[in-house]
Request: fold
Amino acid sequence: MRLIEKLEEVQIQKKALLAANFYNLETCRGIVKAAGTLGSPVILQLTPGSIKYMGLKTVVGIARTVSAEEKAQTWLHLDHCSDISLIKSCLDEGFDSVMIDASDKNIEENILLTKQVVKLAQGYKVNVEAEVGYVPKPNSEIENDKFTEPADAKRFAEETGITSLAIAIGSKHGFYKGEPKLDIDRLIAIKNVTDAYLVLHGASGIPSEILREAIKNGITKVNVATDTKDLFMKSLKEIMKNSDDIDLRNVFPLAINEIQKMIEQKIKTVSMIN
Reply:
């Protein structure tokens, strides 16, 4: 099943797909083991930085091989990319979804760049995601005046032809200061004016009940990255603090198990499983 078809399915069911970033073999294994154990699909995401670190062909090989070994349904997504040449390379390598991120530009420039990627991706029949409004990057503060305006979302989706739209409704990348608050009324207003699949970035740290409220009101894809990095590193530090074992083959599986447990819980949240 193509990712676009699955997004349509979960949208009708008022559920969402979890999209989790991975950074090495171990984080990929933890994510995919969770999906395989639950029999629930997951989107595997990579930023340009992760691709540069591991290599394009390597990350594709890791994602496809681990998914087959764990008998999990997954899709591969390029996250937050502004480089059209890299987007083309990822499409050629079989990515199921790409994100062109020009959210730091004005809406006219954002539309222009996004249209180029939509045109490029037409022959590949993949999901194309973009962002309108601005979801703050790590170490930045949430600014209400950069939230997505429903009229902008409508215009953007209609003029670009994108299939998925990341919106700014109160989430942020990185760690939160205090409990996150999502503007559900704004989400509903956006959902009422566009058929694009709505994406929530910065879901790490957002309580399950708030995520579920957002999903019930139109969010179809939920992105998680910070939680994975944070838990993996904290797990390794804790393990090494209490052990002199230097054999990575003994140490890494313990951290993988922690990632698996965390991702299983997040899959249950977005799938509306109690």
User: Anything to note?
Assistant: The two ends are 26 Å apart (CA to CA). Residues 248-270 form the longest helix (23 residues).
